[in-house]
Amino acid sequence: MEIIAHGIDLVDCPRIEEMLNRHGRRFVDRVFTAAEQAYADANKDRVEKFAGRFAAKEAILKLMGTGWRGKIAWTDIEVVNNAAGQPEVTLNGEVKKISDNLGIKHISVSITHTANFAIASAVALAQNCRDS
Questions:
Q1: Which of 110, 28, 120 is nearest to 74 (CA)?
Q2: Among residues 56, 41, 26, which one has the least CA distance to residue 124?
Q3: Which of 8, 42, 117, 124 is deepest in the core (most CB within 10 A)?
Q4: What is the per-residue pLDDT across 67-81, written as a single tens digit (0 to 9) for each?
């Protein structure tokens, strides 16, 4: 596998908390999948969990070079933890189409947060011809 792109994003957790308070379910349902919502809601640091997932989605859109536009839906990107607690990315819809066109085979993401900030780094990997 070879690295073909990288994206990073920093989110202000109080800004996400404000969005949750102001827009409630409308914001949550528009931006986060059911699995992402369940994960955040099950944690005492709910705001930070949502902020981390938001940062990951932004980082992924940056590595694709698109940003959030056109037919892209926030829920086209899902970030859930595997059994070991490591975040894993699943793409659907328009984002999956863009990813396939770019030759992305896997996206590795890392997320960290404090009460004030969440940051995510995403790396796109493509299959190297030697791996075929």
A1: 28
A2: 56
A3: 124
A4: 777 789 999 999 999
Residue 132 pLDDT > 70, yes or no?
no
**Catalytic: which of 23, 49, 57, 62?**
62
Task: Point out the catalytic residue in the list 44, 49, 105, 113.
Answer: 113
Q: Which domains does the chain have, with CATH numbers?
A: 2-131 (3.90.470.20)
Tens-place pLDDT, residues 83-101:
999 999 999 999 999 999 9
113 is catalytic: yes
Residue 9 has pLDDT above 80, yes or no: yes
106 is catalytic: no
